Amino acid sequence: MDQSESLENAEFAATVRQWLEENLTGEFAELRGKGGPGSEHEFFERRLAWDRHLAAAGWTCIGWPAEYGGRGATLEQQVIFHQEYARANAPARVNHLGEELLGPTLIVFGTDEQKQRFLPGIRNVTELWAQGYSEPGAGSDLANVSTTARLDGDRWVINGQKVWTSLAHVAQWAFVVCRTEPGSTRHQGLSFLLVPLDQPGVTVRPIQQLTGTSEFNEVFFDDAVTEADLVVGAPGDGWKVAMALLTFERGVSTLGQQIGFARELDGIVALAEAAGATDDPHIRERIARARIGLRVMRAHAVRALADADPGQASVQKLLWANWHRDLGKLAMDVQGAASLIGPDHDHAGTRSVITDPEHLELAEWQRLFLFTRADTIYGGSNEIQRNIIAERVLGLPREARA
Length: 402
Fold this sequence. Notes:
Its cofactor is FAD. This protein has about 400 residues and is of the alpha+beta class. About 45% of the residues lie in helices and about 15% in strands. The strands form two sheets. A four-stranded mixed beta sheet has the order 1-4-5-8. Helix 7 packs antiparallel against helix 8 and helix 7 runs parallel beside helix 9. The chain is globular, with a radius of gyration of 22 Å.
């Protein structure tokens, strides 16, 4: 990067920082730090209003080309935006699946008509999206998809079930991987469809998590329909499109994610110091390892952004998922027995009775511990990531399949 680019990026960072300082005020001030993992239910409508406020100021989809409503921001500027956003402790976004995943996929693979129809709604946050990948028999192993879609005149008719479908209960649309060629197996015969969720053939049932919240859902398709031209890429090319989308999932936003991780670690260190846990050499060692792990994650994330190697994304997922899971365990261990008592206890230690799990009260670190149990599963389990690295990067023999 030459000096002029460095100056331009510094000015961009200052602009982002100033805008966030001036706008995370008033009705939005209370949203700082809200809506993160395990707290997705917090202030949803107000966070939706915040996302639309961002959109009105041109701060959504900043990496998209200007012709599609974006800023055409460079890779460095996109990283800067996500880092400044995280440093400001701004609220979790409600439009990640549309803005960071589907939008870039449509720009690459979509028809002109699909881009004109869907990109403005994503950019303006007027239409929210869910991801229809996993199924009861095809979690991280997407090639085992059995949900079917058959072309009937001018529309696709869809039957099957998706599970762990994040935000389906608040989304208007879903991008759904279906098997469209009868008799096909594994990667062959899949198609990537855009499906409206508000129709009689779609049933959405929230799945309650350990945290008591329901960020994701199971979705049933019973003769649900979508228009014939709402297939992204050619019919049968769904695997290629689906895999391309996953590369966007682990893009520049991961560097902003690490700012949040650093904030969590700092909070745990403060907690350890207050509880006297730093007198324990084992706890001090784990804190030091967590600091080192953050540095390793950042170095790898920066390298991965410049490297098209498909294995880099899997290595990155393994790094942050295991690190964050261990951080949740550390948060509990530095508190000792006190970690078992939450805000639903009075000073005498009496537990209040909770009859509605959705109103379960958890302390911040309890929520972190419980939610991070899932980090090594969602988005591709550890086992799947290791298989990808072994088979596609190291060239080892493929795992035997039944």
